[in-house]
Amino acid sequence: MSLLKPILLVEDDFVDASTAKQALQDLRVRNPVIHKTDGEEALEYLKDRNNDKPAMILLDLNMPKINGIELLQIIKTDTGLQQIPVVALTVSKYEQDKLDTFDLGVAGYVIKAVDYDAFLRAMDIIIQYWAWNGLVEKERETNNARL
Amino acid sequence: MRDCRPILLLEDDTVDAMTVKRALKELHILNPLVRVANGEEALVYLKDDGREKPCVILLDLNMPKMNGIEFLKVAKADEKLKRIPAIVLTTSKDDQDRLKTFQLSIAGFVVKPVDYVKFVEAMRIVNLYWTLSELPNSEQESANEKLQANTAGRR
Q1: A122: exposed, middle or buried (C-beta count within 10 Å: 0-12, 13-18, 19+)?
Q2: How many domains does chain B fold into?
Q3: pLDDT tens figures, B90-102
Q4: Contact across the interface for B132 and A79, Cβ inside 8 Å
Q5: What domain range includes position A61?
Q6: What ipTM does this complex have?
Q7: Within 13 A of B131's CA, how many CA atoms are on the CB side?
């Protein structure tokens, strides 16, 4: 891959957003991370032709203005955006939220762990999966790294 | 995978289907593997209410009769089927295939490594991801159906 597309993080909670960014950094993800704090801001970013389309979107569900499910619906019905995989990253365990997002074409639904180590492990699996999809990249670890 | 419903595999090549089966076994993935040879057969399976809906669909793209993209067009327009995550498992590195299938809301596009050990690693990650991720659980739906059936039986 020549130029790495960004990961778009849509999250209104400041602490949750920092935690997600920290995890992506700890996992040595090479893709730039763009953070938007609600659906409206995210949509503005996505609609602006000057911006790189993200490789994937990590989406919180409960947000003010345009919430996650509304944003997902807009993305998945927009022919210029619908190809972007969206992974819900949420605290919501509601069966209805799962059904609604999968009906709209979500590409994963992960419940946020409160404990950082568990959250990091989950993010690692998400990143490894999307790396196999050719959309995200981790820095190559040198032989003596992380010893 | 997150639950024990079957995995539906659309693969016309018998050797490739066996390789998937072998990898799942090696990874101790207990979900039954239901293999069909093309999109047409997959739709017959999926529309049969007597068969358990799969937790995920793994599909090849190049298949006779109804290929992967044609299958996705039908499945993703079907209210009852569209929610089932579909993951493309292919040797195609074609950017158009990737774009077209992602536009059809697939939940993954994994290029099959030729090397078996690497293929097992890919399947390991696919399994980890779909164990971590929630699935659109039809448990509640089936519970409701059972309840309805019971009520109907009592009438």
Answers
A1: buried
A2: 1
A3: 998 899 999 999 9
A4: no
A5: 7-132
A6: 0.93
A7: 15
